[in-house]
Amino acid sequence: MQINLITGISGSGKSVALRAFEDAGFDCVDNLPVSLLESLVGNLEKEGSKQLAVAIDARRGESISELPKILENLRSQHELRVIFLSADTNSLVQRFSETRRRHPLSGSSKAFDSATLIEAIDRERALLEPLRSQAHCIDTSNIPAHALRSWIYDLVKDKSLGLNVVFQSFGFKKGVPSEADLVFDVRCLPNPHYDKILKPLTGHDQAVKEFLEHIPEVVSMEKDIIQFIEKWLPHYIADGRSYLTVAIGCTGGQHRSVYLVTRLMKHFQNQKALSDLQISFLSRHRELDSIPVIAA
């Protein structure tokens, strides 16, 4: 059975992600107690179910600590992917304020009856931290619901059981993506933003591509990033990783980083030598669709 476990910080978009799996034809269960996960999988398997998406959060408190061992058992018998959604504290506070929802850990125990929202968020981060290392992490701070759904659809289409490499463009003025494993700063390259014709365009537009591809520093930066990734990919695989996010950042996340992510995707998707290593490549452009706010 193909199992996708959706977890992460409350308010980061788990419901949006779960609905995307439901639209893709998965059996979906929200807010499942940790202790029932294995029995759910067993019962659905007897019924012939092939695809399951389950959302589990930290509202069960300390029982979440049992989840890594349960996932280890399930992974030995099924295809298992863990998706961890997160967002910065300011974004989470804004979302809870706008929806007037109560955080699940507020008042979840006598010790936290009077916990502030920020204290509840911090406690939840601490409870869920052990899951991050084995998960595909997505920072939803600066992306809208439709972008998250699109990224989930990409994961649904990805059948790779090996290493998933995500190339993501972003703008430093909105912060470095929290899920980034490798970060390349390309702000030192000439910026199309200062050209009146190119300013409203993006790295997807032909005029911007032609501008950047004729600059020696851009060509050199692209080659250096490719060489670094090609050298170290086998080591990341040997380390047992399932996910690797390579973030390419420029000032606004509109021109240079988008162009280079597109170039990197084209290069690595055409490398037949990597096919034997069971690596799949995905691309994201955080700022191009960046509008507030994701509903939880």
TrEMBL record:
Signal sequence segment: none
RapZ C-terminal domain span: 164-287
Record-annotated RapZ-like N-terminal domain positions: 1-154
Residues bound to ATP: G8, I9, S10, G11, S12, G13, K14, S15
Pfam families, A to Z: PapZ_C (PF22740), RapZ-like_N (PF03668)
Keyword terms: ATP-binding, GTP-binding, Nucleotide-binding
UniProt xrefs under InterPro entries: P-loop_NTPase, RapZ-like, RapZ-like_N, RapZ_C
Residues the entry annotates as binding GTP: D57, A58, R59, R60
SUPFAM superfamilies linked: P-loop containing nucleoside triphosphate hydrolases
HAMAP family, sorted: RapZ_like (MF_00636)
Protein name: RNase adapter RapZ
Organism: Polynucleobacter paneuropaeus
